[in-house]
Model the fold of this input.
Amino acid sequence: LVTGPTGSGKTTTLYGALNEIRNDEDKIITIEDPVEYQLQGIMQIPVNEKKGLTFARGLRSILRHDPDKIMV
Done:
């Protein structure tokens, strides 16, 4: 769990952690609002409430893809 005010480095911390745990064998999927920058080898899904893709629906969809690691 990573929390903090705007500009405190939450995204940088999470992306750094994802890069550390990333390997060729694990499927890592994120759901983000918004996707701030692309990470190689990680499937990143942007929330789009106008099209009905909320965090809850996105997470249910992610779980159908049999991920090894998830970031919300």
Notes: The chain is about 30% helix and 15% strand. Residues 26-71 form one domain. Strands lie at 28-32, 43-46, 69-71.
